[in-house]
């Protein structure tokens, strides 16, 4: 049976869910946060060590300002409310992406990372202002400026995900089968699962079903 170290998720469909149910995209984001909490619980139950959540891409800045502000406020409130509980539960938070938000949110993110940095039960990687191509370009620039050899090992070591194993599972909800500039380097051998459900409708049972299916897959990593 395959063990699961790392699950990455593209949490798609909040906007459509909110429009359909409340005529408000923001209501969908709020509901999406509830799914995040239940997925964290299942991750702990299944002893998953890393959970990477795509919360805001470098392309998401093109959205209306009101939606962007709502998303960041939601994150701010969430962290203010939950970070101590995360810490108590031995959960580590890491941000993947460049912290270019309000001073308040930047500080909150930095302090949350600092507070939880030694925790070891589950590491939640929150991809925020994250873009995979940018991440790869930045890594090669760093190698170039330090006159280091450009090879796979050195690139991996200079991504936001250095020291994090590649994902075993990538899930995308929301009935859309694309990767949207997410972890393009890291998912070379990852098993990908698409769910037709919108993120707020995705539940513990759906997640566990994917985990069980993954455990049965024969992973070859290029061998036979
Ligand atoms: C994609 O759905 C979702 C996002 C861009 C934001 C994800 C945010 C959350 C799940 C809630 C906040 C999470 C944290 C951790 C604070 P979409 O808006 O693109 O949906 P659509 O495809 O239906 O428009």
Structure report:
This protein has a single domain (6-216), classed as Decaprenyl diphosphate synthase-like (Undecaprenyl pyrophosphate synthetase, 3-Layer(aba) Sandwich), CATH 3.40.1180. A six-stranded parallel beta sheet has the order 3-4-2-1-5-6, sandwiched between helices. The model has no long low-confidence stretch (mean pLDDT 97). Helix 1 (14-22) packs across helix 2 and helix 3 runs parallel beside helix 4. The chain has seven helices and six strands. The longest helix has 24 residues, at 65-88. It is an alpha/beta fold and 224 residues long. Farnesyl diphosphate (FPP) is lined by residues 11-16, 29, 32-33, 36, 53, 55-56, 60, 71, 74-75, 78, 126, 174, 199.
List cofactors, ions and other ligands: farnesyl diphosphate
| Tally of separate domains | 1
The total strand number stands at 6
In whole angstroms, how far apart are the ends?
A: 17 Å
Biggest β-sheet description: 6 strands, parallel
Reading off the top of the CATH hierarchy, the class is best stated as Alpha Beta
Helix content: 40-55%
Tally of separate helices: 7
């Amino acid at each position: 049976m395959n063990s699961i170290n790392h699950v990455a998720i593209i949490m798609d469909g909040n906007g459509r869910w909110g429009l359909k149910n409340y005529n408000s995209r923001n209501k969908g984001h709020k509901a999406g946060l509830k799914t995040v909490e239940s997925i964290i619980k299942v991750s702990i139950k299944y002893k998953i060590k890393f959970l990477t959540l795509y919360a805001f891409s470098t392309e998401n800045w093109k959205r209306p300002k009101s939606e962007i502000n709502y998303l960041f406020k939601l994150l701010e409130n969430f962290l203010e409310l939950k970070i101590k509980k995360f810490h108590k539960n031995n959960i580590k938070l890491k941000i993947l992406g460049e912290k270019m938000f309000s001073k308040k949110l930047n500080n909150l993110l930095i302090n949350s990372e600092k507070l939880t940095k030694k925790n070891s039960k589950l590491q939640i990687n929150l991809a925020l202002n994250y873009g995979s191509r940018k991440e790869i370009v930045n890594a090669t620039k760093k190698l170039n400026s330090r006159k280091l050899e450009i090879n796979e090992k050195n690139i991996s070591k200079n991504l936001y995900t250095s020291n994090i194993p590649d994902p075993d599972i990538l899930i995308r909800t929301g009935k859309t089968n694309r990767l949207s500039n997410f972890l393009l380097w890291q998912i070379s051998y990852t098993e990908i699962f698409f769910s037709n459900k919108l993120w707020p409708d995705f539940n513990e049972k759906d997640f566990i079903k994917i985990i069980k299916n993954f455990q049965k897959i024969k992973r070859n990593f290029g061998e036979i």
